Amino acid sequence: MRVVKIGGRAQADPRLATTLRDMWNAEPGELCVVHGGGDEVSAMQRALGREAAFVGGRRVTSEADLELLRMVLSGVVNKRLVNALVAVGLPAVGISGEDGGLIGAELIDVALLGFAGRPVTVKADLLRTLLGAAYLPVISPLAHDVLSPNGGALNVNGDDAAAAIAAALDADELLLVADVEGVRDGNGETFTSLSIETARDLAANGIAAGGMAAKLESAESALRAGVGRVRICDLAGLGDDARGTFITQSQSVVL
Using DSSP, how many helices (H) and how many strands (E) does the chain show? Predict the structure, then answer.
């Protein structure tokens, strides 16, 4: 089983649909896709006169932003991606983390991040039902607020959602697709493997910042939850098992 998180920029690559089709055809029923769409969310915020703000690569989310996120991520982005996958013959089904309470989340820090959440539960049986019926789940990372008496929603970082889903499905591999080949050092060289301890140092030193720092945190979370391996790569890495940066729990680092 592989869980693939596709960032917004990678979704614009014309090779994406056929690449995912090849992965599915090689191992039918062994793939789950989580998507982002941060650039489009930010563009919509600006169009409405709001400022997009991030802390550690995670979006600061106001209560008003939640409806915008539903519209952009669970509506436009999710259905556009599903449409592209269906067009190349994939049995893709689009759902959000709110559907069926698929992803349950808790607030991270309301003063710092607003209505941004951390996944605490994943209903793996819902995903296994889809997979068992030969459908490919394509998931928007909105979540059900497990502590809200009114069943509110929370915005979950796509990498965090993918890590939680990979753990719940006992995935062999979590692939976090970025717009660069992998994690780079201070000289712009790509690491082939990186321990979680060194990954923390890169984030602390600002070498890995923003979205990449968030990916490294999600990678560590997935590994600690039992996911077989985690790789940060570009779209080409989905067809090349050696491409990208492998995040490991060992201390070995290779350039």
Answer: 9, 14
